[in-house]
Every structure is written in C-alpha cells, then in structure tokens.
Amino acid sequence: MRKILAGIETEYGLLVEGYGADSQIDHSMALVRGYPGECHFGWDYQYESPRADLRGFRLERLAFDPVDAQFDAGRTYGEAHEIRSDRVLPNGARFYNDHGHPEYATPECLSIFELAKHDCAGQIVVMRAAKAFEKELGVPVHIYKNNTDYHGASYGTHEGYLVPRSVGFERLFKGLLPMMVTRQVLVGAGCVGDGSSKQPSYQLSQRADYLVEPANAETLYRRPIFNTRDEAHSEPKDWMRLHVICGDANMISSATARKVGLMKLAIALTEAEFAPIWEFKDPVRAFQAISHDLSFDFKVELKGRSWTNAYEILESYFAAAERLLDLDDEMKWVIDSSRQLLQDLRTNFSQFKREVDWAAKYAMYTDYIASESTDWRDPQLRAFDLEYHNADPEEGLHAALEQMGEVSPNPVQSDLLAALEGVEEPTRAYARGLAVSRFNDRLKGVCWRTLTFDIGGKPVEVDLMPNFEYPPQLAEAEDVETFISMLRGIQ
Amino acid sequence: MTDGDRLTRPLTKEPGTKQGDDSGPSTPTIRKPEGGNELLRRMKKVDPDQAKKYRQRSGQ
C-alpha cells in the first residue's frame, strides 16, 4: 500500500474573558504574532486557490456566515497577509490566524502516529502563544481544541491527504463517502446538544449538525461532508490534496491516529478500485442519524429501500483492505484496533471509552446526570463539554482523565517538545523546517509547495516535491546555495 | 456538583440502556470513571456559564 502523505490543520477556539466574538480576529492576530518561539514570518499565497473545485470549475465566491458579517460591520482588518499573521516553525508547521481562530497546521507526515504526535504538539504552540498574549492583555485567555461554540458557529479540524490526480473526484467521492459518514463511531469527539444549543441531548460528532450537502467546495457556510476544494499544494497535474473537513478535533491522540488511518485505508482501496460500494439514500441525513443515535445501532438507509448500519460499513472496508491491499503494520493496527473497539462498544464500554473521545465524555456526563439527578438540559453539562477540550493541561477535563489513567495516554511531553524542533520523517516538511532553522535570514517565501530564497538580491524558488525523500545530509549544507543545490538534486 | 464523592457513587440506573433481542448491536453497560479526584476537582471549578458565554466566529 502506498505511503500517503497527510497533515492536520486545527482551528482552535479562543475565549478572552470580557470580550466577545467581535474582537476575535484582532485577538487571534495578536496571539499568533506574540508566539514566543523560533519561526519564520510570512507565507507565500501564490499557489492557493480556495475557490477551485475538484469537479473542474471555479466558484465566483465562497459563502460567508451572515452572523460573522454582523461582527465585522464597520470594521477593517488590513491586508489578508496581515490578518493571517503567518508563522512557519522549525518543524515545517504553519501557525496563523484563520477567521479569528489560531490555527496550527502540522508538518506533513507519512506515519499516522507521527501525525498524531504533531497534532498534539500543536496544543503546546497555541498554549505558549496564549500564555504570552494573556500576560500582555492582563485578562484570562482560554484555548479550546474543539469544533463548536454551541451557539451555531463551527470551526474546523481538517485533514489533508496527497492523492494522485488520476483518481478523480467521482471515484473518490463514491469510495470515501461511506467512511466519512461512519468513522465518527470510532473517532467522533462528542458534543452535548446540537450546534444551535436548542436540543438537549448528546451526539457523537461535533460537525454533524453543520453539514448540509454531500459535496461542495464551501467550508465557512453550507458545509459538505465531502469538500471539493482543489488546492493541490503540489504540482496539480500530478496530485490533488484531498481536503477532509467533516472530522472532529480529537483530544485522545490514538483517536487522531485512527481517524487518519481509517481515511488512508479508504483512499488506498479507492485508488485500487476496491472500495466497497454503499449508496446512501441521503448521506447528510445518514451522517446526522449516526451522530444522534444513542441506541448505538447506527442504522442508515440506503438507496432502494434497504438498510445497513455503521458496523457493517466499517467492516466492509476492513475486510476489503485485508483481502486486497498489502498492509503495513500501521494499517494492520488501524483495522485490528478498530474491530476490537467496535466489539468493545457493544460489550466492554469501559475499554471503549479509553480510546474514543465521545465515549469518554458520554461516560462522564451520564455519571454526572445519575449522581446529580439531572438531565441533558443541565447547562453544566455543556460547560463540562467545553472544558473537556480546554487545551491547557492544568485545566482541561480530558487532561484530568489522562492524568487519572482513564483514557489512553497521549505522547509524553519530551516527545512533543522534540516534535516542535523538527520532524523525524524524510518528508518535505523536513526541508521546510531546515530552511526556517538554518537559513531564515535568506528565506523570502514559504508555502507547502515551495521555498523562495533571496540569492544575490533575486528570488530563487525551489519546488518541494511531495513524494520525494529528503535526506538527512540536507542538515549539513554549509550555506543556502548548497542547500538549494541539494534540494534540486533530490529525485 | 456539590459533593466530591458523588461521581464515584454507584449508579442507580444506566442511561441509554434498552431492552431487545440479541440479533443486533446492544447498548453497552457504562462504568464510571475510577481513580483519583483530579477530574472532580476540575469539574467543581468549571463555571456553569462557561459555554453560555462562549461565542465564536465561524471557522472553516
């Protein structure tokens, strides 16, 4: 099975005590700009194309949340690059302000466990910036790694996967949609109520209630299950970047690894034209039905008046992958651990909740409901739900559960700190990180796809091919000219 | 929360449990968090209005 390059970008929730959402962009900009660690300032936007659609057309404009428009009435924020306030870190990650949310985009990784580690390390970056901002502002600043504000606003945790262009939209959509709809059973982050705060209940996914269409290119409003934004972040003739926006932010790192691993399984099966075929009568309704099904039957209606459930759909991917793909140890872990969890969900919930965020929270809340003789309408539950995702390890409820050994442990602090200094895999993120740590004074432009250096007063752009292996000798380059020459010699 | 011991008290019911045959997935038995009281300590500190005052802009 092909090693699939992947990354995760998480928009964090930001609450500055005494201020509202109308100040959020200013605060997020200031927070990012105050990041106290080593970094490169700026980002090269020349290859970005958020309105391009995988289906071969280009949107005139992207939809915008009308509530946000009210926050911006009479305000100006400056040029786009000033608003985003990009920072590029020595591990090749990008840290910036995205629509008022501090966003950490991990370095690209091949291993799902490396990626989960970098996703976790991102919390340290955001918290460092938040603490510096808190000190500057003089009021408490809270950071949440979640995807809803319980008042109708959602913000994303997106996954990006490098996929050959030749696979095409139609095949990807058919092959991946059933996985996108059902994997929440294993990797949903859980949510008290629905997105609008009207319904007192609990559900598996933080994003389900914000999805309105099976596929489109939108991300801020009218969000789809399958996002068709076509930004390749590499040579578009050869590659596409699959942009998955329907997943949740996981606090349990093993869930992050499983979330990515499940999608990689589905991508590999789709590439090989072995993906199981499931046609939902209504994909959005199926996604939401699973999310809200606290009987845990997870039944979904298919075209042709037939029914199945999430267990059967997930197992169909596992069986096909075992039968038809050459699986490495990580993918075997994804299948074996997922199967075990699906069994545990029905027979051993105490074990299941150790690995799955929605279940860890559900157990905590049902216990509270029983002990306090209350119900899902209790506002305290929604407050707990928010605080589970508090990124401060001294305050968060997930961090408390981890400390108590109630959920599977995240990577240790020393590994997370090391992950901020560089990457262990020979991906293009390694080269990007080296450029920041070694040649920042000559670095004039950075993006996922290229590096641009100032050589004799002229810009020199170097492509970072996504499928190349970047050797450790790059770290020994004595000067930027040698570094560029070595990058161009990689094949 | 008013009593630090309440979260470790035996449950009188298991929310979500339903009756049914053995042919399909069944609702699991849910056990409470065990171990130290760090979770309880933090839960007690949570402002009940924290989510109410938490308003965000839409992101992507």
Can you put this structure into words, describing what you see?
- The complex is a heterodimer of chains A (491) and B (60).
- With 491 residues, chain A is of the alpha+beta class.
- In chain A, 40% of the residues lie in helices and 16% in strands.
- Chain A folds into 2 domains: 6-415, Creatine Kinase, Chain A, domain 2 (2-Layer Sandwich), CATH 3.30.590; 426-488, no CATH class.
- In chain A, strand 16 (443-446) and strand 17 (450-455) form a beta hairpin.
- In chain A, helix 5 (169-182) crosses helix 9 (310-324).
- Chain A is globular, with a radius of gyration of 22 Å.
- The two termini of chain A are 21 Å apart.
- The model of chain A has no long low-confidence stretch (mean pLDDT 96).
- Chain B has 1 helix and no strands.
- Chain B has one helix spanning 38-45.
- The interface between A and B is large, with 73 and 45 residues.
Oligomer description: heterodimer
The largest pleated sheet of chain A is described as: 7 strands, antiparallel
Number of individual domains of chain A: 2
Largest sheet of chain B: none
Number of strands of chain A: 18
* Strands of chain B, count: 0
- What is the averaged pLDDT score of chain B? 62
- In which range does the helix fraction of chain A lie? 40-55%
Q: What is the helix tally of chain A? A: 17
**N→C terminal distance of chain A:** 21 Å
CATH class of the largest domain in chain A: Alpha Beta
Question: Any idea of the CATH topology of the largest domain in chain A?
Answer: Creatine Kinase, Chain A, domain 2
- The general outline of chain A is globular
The chain-level mean pLDDT of chain A equals 96
